[in-house]
Amino acid sequence: MQGGHQFRQKFVSTRRTVCFLFLFLTFIKMNTLLDWLNQEFLWNPLRDWLLFVGILIAGFFVKRFLSVNISRQLFRLIKENAETVPITEFVALLRKPFEALFMLCVLYLAVDRIQIPAAWNWAPVERFGLRMIADRVFDISMISAIGWIIIRFVKFIGLVFLKRAEKTESKIDDQFVPFFRDLAIVIIVILAVFAILDNVFNVDIVALITGLGIGGLALALAARETLENLFASFTIFLDLPFLVGDTVQVGAMSGDVEKVGFRSTRIRTADGSLITVPNR
Known about the structure:
This protein is an alpha+beta fold. It has helices at 2-37, 46-78, 87-111, 130-166, 172-199, 205-210, 213-222, 224-239; strands at 40-41, 44-45, 247-250, 253-260, 264-269, 274-278.
């Protein structure tokens, strides 16, 4: 019994020695690792470069997963009003713009780890230089990504209303839905441009619009044909000389109306050709 007790004591003592030795070696290796991570590489600690690369790689691999799941969660909020439009259609529309917005955020987090050395004498963001250009390009990209998301959501709403229009006997709603969908997209693009001018370039939008003057007149003259087609499209919607699906004849050509847009009307001929005719 006494020999067993002594053996147990020696075993416990040996185990403690091994544990202390392991902790000591781990401490030394940790210090060595920290020293290695604190080494400078291209004017930045190596740990910051590893974080920079790690954030980019992690963001690249999870962007699809997050964008798909965010799209699915949004669809659940509007599922009752989505008619028969499947969730796959909603995800297909919003996945890429969500991925773009997510990767912009990832890029911002990654670049924030890297410091520009003072020896390079880069001008601050407030003054013209590479920093200002990079900052403005990033802001433009963020606004564009958000606008892209909104446009894709409007397209989904257009799909929902097209499904509802298919259930009615009237062809008027089949013609109105694509028109107002495209009109909403144009308005969103214009608002996005105004947001960029205001937030990125600090342009006074009200002063810009009111100060167009002769420049606005010259622009209107240059876009006269486009404006004529636009007004003609409104005339078509008000007078309804034909509807989507009607067979019309323009000169020596005849076919079925597929779409009435801002500038033109698309007609499908009997041989399957798609012809675009200006609205004016």
